[in-house]
Amino acid sequence: MIEKNIEANNLFASVLSDVKPSPIHAFDEKVSDLPNILKLTIGEPDFSVPEHIKQAAVAAILADDSHYSVSAGTKQLRQAASHFLADRYDLHYDADTEILTTIGATEGLYAILSAILDENDEVIIPTPAYPVYAAMTRLNKGNPLLVDISQDNFILTPDHLRAILANHTHVKALILTNPSNPTGVTYSAEALSDLADVLRGTDVLVISDEIYSELRYDDQHVSMATFLPDQTLVINGVSKSHAMTGYRIGIIAGPAALITPVNMVHSFIIMTPSNPAMAAATEAFDSSLSASDTEKMKNAYRERRDLLVSKMTALGFEMATPSGAFYIFAKIPENLNQDDVAFAYDLVDQEKLAVVPGSGFGPGGEGYIRLSYAASMAMLTDAMARLSSYCENNSATRIG
Ligand SMILES: Cc1ncc(COP(=O)(O)O)c(C=O)c1O
């Protein structure tokens, strides 16, 4: 039995002292129990899972599909994912050797970082970024290189990337999020091609988190793998596109030489994914009904985005161009409190409206707030009324 007087610090890996719980969830938990709170904090689709997808999970359970699968996931799911990537993004992966089923995008990220990182290897993370990347990099004994891209419209430019590579000799990977959480910004084909030109021939792997690829409002999604297939691992899944966050199914696609070692690590972490969840994800990727399910959700998100953009612009917020995912990342107007954490708590205190402070997403997020528009139009309309009231009451130069 562990003696009571053993200090926790002696028991746990020293890297744990560098890792904090997700700032998004920490903030969300703090404000969740307040009466009348309206939260635009969590990136969680508010739609139900389409009926035909639910039925696929039910059928798997009733058919006693209750045994271990293989660690890469069922062949049916890998084939469905392979067809999906080919149809939607013109990406071509062999279902037998180049696709892996993971427990959400989250486990996919972790398995990749575990497979590639040696102690003190560096991972480029353009910020503001999903906070999980830096935490996972540290947990795998790597060093996150948090690079502020807020001055370049929240896009990593080829010059910036070149400069980072010139100054750092231990870079193992670049994590690219496209479309981005928290900014909603998307990379054009040209921007990706230019980055690929910088990376081609180096030993740097791109971990391309494309979990929001189906939620792109103004143009068609293009994958980094189109331009740098041999050095890219694509992460995708059904969490956001099919409102299936709780089913926990993601995929990794990449060349067999990269997928094989990642699959080995992944098999030690999870053994195999859950069969009913895989049956549901197979239906989500494969069914001809899915395109219209996703389209309906996308149209609803687009309408919500347009509402927030027009209301917030009128209130004086400037924002990153929100062309994908379901987030608005907005700069706090100069006549309001510029400390994003103080601003967010004040907004909760005065108006019972919760948004996430931007600094939780890294250096490029200071002075910003993130709003998730995975919420109903009624909630968003109410949120905008509360934000407007806050701006009116707190602005140094009061409106009107
Ligand atoms: C950029 C990004 N990647 C990955 C994830 C996690 O996806 P999953 O639920 O499939 O693990 C999220 C969830 O918010 C995300 O925003």
UniProtKB/TrEMBL annotation:
GO BP field: amino acid metabolic process
InterPro entries in alphabetical order: Aminotransferase_I/II_large (IPR004839), AspAT/PAT-like (IPR050596), NHTrfase_class1_PyrdxlP-BS (IPR004838), PyrdxlP-dep_Trfase (IPR015424), PyrdxlP-dep_Trfase_major (IPR015421), PyrdxlP-dep_Trfase_small (IPR015422)
Enzyme Commission number(s) from the entry: 2.6.1.-
Cofactor(s) it depends on: pyridoxal 5'-phosphate
Classification via PROSITE patterns: AA_TRANSFER_CLASS_1
UniProt-listed Gene3D superfamilies: Aspartate Aminotransferase, domain 1, Type I PLP-dependent aspartate aminotransferase-like (Major domain)
Top-level EC class as recorded in UniProt: transferase
Annotated family: Belongs to the class-I pyridoxal-phosphate-dependent aminotransferase family.
Name under which the protein is recorded: Aminotransferase
Species name: Leuconostoc pseudomesenteroides
